[in-house]
Amino acid sequence: APVRLEDYRPTDYLIDTVSLDVRLHPTATRILAELAIRPNPAGRAGAALELDGDELELVSVALDGGALAPGAYEASPSGLTLHAPPERAFRLSIETRVNPTANTKLMGLYRSSGVYCTQCEAEGFRRITYFLDRPDVMAVYTTRIEAEEAEAPVLLGNGDPVERGALPNGRHYAVWRDPHPKPCYLFALVGGKLGRVGGEIVTRSGRKVELGVYVEPGKESRAGYALDALVRSMRWDEQAFGCEYDLSVFNIVAVSDFNMGAMENKGLNIFNDKYVLASPETATDADYAAIEAIIAHEYFHNWTGNRITCRDWFQLCLKEGLTVFRDQEFSSDERSRPVKRIADVRALRAQQFAEDSGPLAHPVRPSVYREINNFYTATVYEKGAEVIRMLKTLIGPEAFKAGMDLYFHRCDGTAATIEDFLACFAEASGRDLSHFSLWYRQAGTPSVAVRTAYDAEDRTLRLDFAQSTPPTPGQTEKEPVVIPIRLGLVSAQGRGAPLKTADGRTLEDGLFVLDKTADSLTLIEVPADPVPSLLRGFSAPVRLEQELGPAELLTLFRRDEDPFNRWQAAQTYAMRLMVRAVEALRAQQPPEFDQGFAVALGELLAATDDHAFAAQVMALPSEADVARELGREIDPDAVLHARKALRSFVGQTAGDRLAQTYSRLETTGPYSPDAASAGRRSLRNAALDLLTAGDPGRGIPLAQAQFASADNMTDQIGALAILAQHPGPAREEALAAFGEHFAADPLVLDKWFGLQAAIPEAATLDRVRGLMRHPAFSLSNPNRTRALVGTFAMANLSQFHRADGAGYAFLADMVLQLDGSNPQLAARLLGAFRTWRSLEQGRRAQAETQLRRVAAKEGLSPDVSDIVTRSLA
Ligand code: ARG
Ligand code: ZN
């Protein structure tokens, strides 16, 4: 049955302390839980106590040390009920048995490459012991972990270490105590053979904290960057948000089987090793940036998520949207702010806009769910972060800071709601945020249409704005939202003009707030021919429909003081060319392009010293971007060919400039992952990529040479990715060499799997099938599966959406196969169908057939069943 926000009520019982004794064993781990329980004054007196369970085996249960009468309770794998518990505080002792080796769902206690680890968010703790498994039940935890010392020399828990020692028969134990009350989803333990790199930090108020990053033994040399990122995160959070760490130990453990990116367990973050391990030879610049961001994200959760947690899972964005905002700010401060913004907006459009326009659309704070694991989405995370960013834009940085301080002060130690959060900002700013809060409840991406009229005589510029949001599942009627639009005027001659409104004010910070269906703004004393630069910095997560001609776009591209809009102007220009090319191709005409874009690109390459920015300009909108722009009746083959044609045209037109850029940016000296060096490499690789697209005869030998001589993964895989786009022996030789060289390095092989899965050729599906038989491939490892199957389905538009439906059938097979072992992963992959209704009708029919085939399977998991049902609705 679906869970609804409106049905929330507090629990009838509270659990104040939890004492766990976990005896690790590969197939029969025993968990003795002692729970101090009392009636909740806010609950119903005399109610039954209903503890959650999931695939649990009950060994014994006792109340205040005494056995329970058989009729007093009822136990099943999915719950333990005490019919009439005492109407006073009492102690419940529960012993359960679980099999970590057989736990392929990777929720609860499981083993990854022999290491015992846990994942409890959202509802995994109930797979360890019976509990009130919901975030508003907060307790103080003590964990004793016992294991065979040879099997698990390292034993880690939440909080501070209290005690450890040897036991007879080669066993040993460790006790950890976490003094901070927390919900059970933040519980974690780890036991295994692990290598460690350590550090130490003294917090602002003088607390000494020992830092540890634990990895597979032998991989310690790849853990240094994660540790460095952790130290920088801790410093930054003190300075930027006044948040200080609150335990004597902070540990991070990398495991190789993990459903998501990482998990913020109190004092014991557990990571997908992909987001910890890095060396120049095995990780790309993008990997380094992702490690930095995710290390920061999980650490930042210590305040936004752990100290202040969520009342219920509908409030997930309370911690996730805010923490994404915080990690984005961190990366912006550590690297280039404009480049980070461009990258984030690219990702937002690719993931969240796609989600928001299809059958899986939901509000940032959903009001109903069947399976909470399916709501760890781009909407909750990335749009959730955009909403925070808009809040800051609307009330200003000082009021935002005051609101955050108030939130930390008032809500610390509580399980809070979005209303609690917003109340702090309303109070700090003196503003009414009730209209703004609609962003949390209303799904769909708003469109803002703008018309501009310049009156040369009066020297006034009138901007007419109109907003609308398309219907989404369950929400047919939409209301206008509060849209902060940052704007400026750019003239063909040079500097931007000041923004004076008709009533004689200057528009503060260039901010116009559109909060009605339609509104207009008149600017006075506007010099001739201004080009309005709207939605600067992407000030709201909306689609902007602004009629700008090629000359105006080029003016923005060349002169806008807002770097985001310079980049956006180039993207819009390229997008137009591709959309027109798709139309031409579908009418059996050859695509034609004007020189404007390529010429401007050449100018940029000649002049810029912001390499990372230039690389972002050169990366044309993706096939999926073009498909979204088209919106309906999409023919992915036409999109592929239109994009190829433009890349080839630009590569030819700007060929010499690209070649110069490529040779000019050659680096010497040892690899460094810093943003400036990474920027150089990204521009150099982007230049080679376009050069090769325009003239393979010129580019392929360069790519081959780079592939052979590169001393770092960024340049090596960059060259390989270019070679991969051009069929022939050069490609196959390079792929074979790479596969052999990294045969023993699973994380690098993932790049190799992914690269091949993304080749936009008809033979790719067979190649993917072949790679599934590769000795290093395994469907039981989520990283391998996502690299091969996930990349094929999510990052190879033309081949997943093959006209014959074979791509869809393949994915449906994979989903059905995986659903038995890892439903969360299966449901994620099935999300690849989320755009199916916008395809041309032949493909739409093929996709529907496969979705129906999945839906018809008996015994589907709640995870897959939820996605397939919503996809077909
Ligand atoms: N809270 C984690 C993060 O944002 C994500 C964990 C999600 N896990 C899950 N099983 N849905 O980093
Ligand atoms: Zn998070």
From TrEMBL:
Keywords: Aminopeptidase, Hydrolase, Metal-binding, Metalloprotease, Protease, Zinc. Belongs to the peptidase M1 family. Its EC number is 3.4.11.2. Residues 551-873 form the Peptidase M1 alanyl aminopeptidase C-terminal domain. Coiled coil: none annotated. GO terms for molecular function: alanyl aminopeptidase activity; metallopeptidase activity; zinc ion binding. NCBIfam families: pepN_proteo. The keyword Zinc applies. GO terms for biological process: proteolysis. This is Aminopeptidase N. Residues 88-186 form the Aminopeptidase N-like N-terminal domain. Residues 225-436 form the Peptidase M1 membrane alanine aminopeptidase domain. Its cofactor is Zn(2+).
